[in-house]
Amino acid sequence: xxxxxxxxxxxxxxxxxxxxxxxxxxxxxxxxxxxxxxxxxxxxxxxxxxxxxxxxxxxxxxxxxxxxxxxxxxxxxxxxxxxxxxxxxxxxxxxxxxxxxxxxxxxxxxxxxxxxxxxxxxxxxxxxxxxxxxxxxxxxxxxxxxxxxxxxxxxxxxxxxxxxxxxxxxxxxxxxxxxxxxxxxxxxxxxxxxxxxxxxxxxxxxxxxxxxxxxxxxxxxxxxxxxxxxxxxxxxxxxxxxxxxxxxxxxxxxxxx
Length: 257
Known about the structure:
Elements: H1 22-34, E1 38-41, H2 49-54, E2 59-63, H3 66-77, H4 81-85, E3 87-91, E4 103-108, H5 119-132, E5 133-144, E6 160-166, E7 172-183, E8 188-198, E9 204-214, H6 218-227, E10 230-236, E11 249-256
Parallel strand pairs: 1-2, 1-4, 2-3, 4-5
Antiparallel strand pairs: 5-11, 6-7, 7-8, 8-9, 10-11
């Protein structure tokens, strides 16, 4: 997993698309209803973990990218002392983590499971999740839903504007992407991201990273979950309860079989 976001982590939270924020309330309600400890895998900049601890939920957060965790730790420094005691950020690998706690809720949000590049690694990750989940706990996983079978239609040779927003200091920021390549055998998608920050004095700063993600068709993800000892209890296509076959995402709420 080489998706470390080394150059763009500090601009990651500039994303103002609905897909970047619609899941926060979903996880807040779920964690609040379940109670107990929560583990967020691929916690990134704390986009979800920070709101959870602010609501009184104890959260352990694991991420592979030290650059993303640096941003998260800056946010933690601004929290109240009480909230800081509830959050536990950790650098680690989704496929091989081992913690002393077990959790009422474990989730892998915002398609981050797709950073895992093989079925073998995916099963290793899900095995770790199973061991850390309380017997009556819930595991939630989200991956994006391919519109159709991946092929030449997915490629883009020129930049596409993903979003435009503004930073706290008023600077305008854009993110453009190029969908550069795909690997049908390994089911990998290769995307280049370019962030541009437009300063008040007219300067433009650029930050680039290349991301590699694995795509899953519906049967793929269902089979992996079943092979790892999970039963799908609820399934959605979006965070408002849209049925799984109508929305743009796969969101599976699982329990131990």
